[in-house]
Amino acid sequence: MPIYISKSKYISGLQCPKLLWTQYNDKNAIPAPDAATEAIFAIGHSVGDLAKELYPDGIEVPWSRNLEETTAATMDLLPQRKPIFEASFQIDGCYCRADIMVPVGDDSWDLYEVKSATKVKDVNVADIAFQTHAIERSGIKLDRLYLMHIDNRYVRQGEIDPAGLFHAEDVTKRARALQPGVAANVAALHRTIDGPCPDIAIGEHCTNPYSCDLWEHCSAFLPEHSVLQLYRIHKKKAFRMLADGIAAIADAPAAELSNGQLIQQAAVNSGQPYVSQDAIRRWLAGLQYPVHCFDFETMNPAVPLFDGTSPYRQVPFQFSLHIIDSPGKEPRHFEFLAEAPEDPRPALIDALKNLGDDGTILAYNMGFERGIISRLAEDFPAEAVFLRSLNKRFLDLMTPFSSFWYHDPKQKGSCSLKNVLPVLTDTSYDGIAIAEGGQAQREFQRAVFTDVAAEEKAQVLQDLRAYCKQDTQALVDVLGVLQGLV
Length: 486
Hints:
Layout: H1 7-15, H2 17-25, H3 35-52, E1 59-60, H4 67-77, E2 84-91, E3 94-104, E4 108-114, H5 122-137, E5 141-150, H6 162-165, E6 166-170, H7 172-178, H8 182-194, H9 215-218, H10 235-243, H11 259-270, E7 274-275, H12 277-284, E8 291-299, E9 315-324, E10 332-337, H13 345-351, E11 361-363, H14 367-379, H15 384-391, E12 394-396, H16 399-402, E13 406-407, H17 417-424, H18 437-449, H19 454-485
Parallel strand pairs: 1-2, 4-5, 8-11, 11-12
Antiparallel strand pairs: 2-3, 3-4, 5-6, 7-13, 8-9, 9-10
């Protein structure tokens, strides 16, 4: 049975021949898509369906595992000279399904590749060049080549307007420039598939243009504390160290490390945390009670759900708040969680009044929370004075860790709350139903904006409350540890 390279496999092969070889010869080594990846696929499908609404007279080629059937069905539709969705072509070891083809003039077609991103990327152009090669080798004349992506300037008012949501960028010149090399690339990729597994060292290609499914396998040789974990190290620099035989943080040349990285290296070498008590004490002196430990949960749908919002706009739907009235006092807890499929922001703003008029608002990586509040002030000008007053009160609990006033080698170069918390305390996010922000967003939208059973919705909302509460309880716990250190 002949082997055909699809457009996704073509991109895989350009990224890493070993990945391509594994996809064809050792499929079981490729992990199943996780929930986050599945969600990306679902977004792509929904965005693609919206793009088809731009061509109400279009005809879709039915999907079949039999590639010959989809190709034959496409050829049968071409003479009708109507827009075709998922047009399929199979030739010269290539197979592609084009998102949208629109007839132009008497005998030509425009090609549209639809993406849920907000701009054209180089990988998209390579994808279109591959499709152009397969389509034109099949005897079809293409005129203009477009990447249709989401326009993040679009603002929803009423029903979604696909004509406003999408921007079709002409990439004909860029794709045509790549097209002459496609045939040679395809031939080389077929040789890769037919040959032994390539021996490819890890490098920047492992995350560009996509995070590779084989990363865990290919990077298994790295030591526990590898140079890739150095805080904020540029990948090019880290991979250069690896190429020079320097894999462990302990062996990294001191002259090439920043002050924070030197502290990290010293902590790794000693096996003990580094603590700057004076710096932590000065930072703690800036706290003003009552201290409000605060955290938002947000969603940023590709297709805006509410009037006045744009694609990928961060919309807060939940917050948790622990208030410590005075040092050592047991905190009080407040929370807000939207439960209905409507704009949650007006009710959330009202609930923010629990932050009071004074006292520090403590967040972890506070730029996120402050950015959400600033955007709320723009969108709800009647509340702008109140909202902007909140932003003046923030203090960032991440600062002692990102400044390396405290660093434990078990953090492995990360200052994220989920890495810091289990190092400083006996608690973590392990074992809870919802354990990270992306999952919280997906589960909220699924439970509130889709048709799920009442019992399931109630459970998801309960899990969301537990997760967000854990976030602010973590702030309380980390703050307590820092106070105990000094």
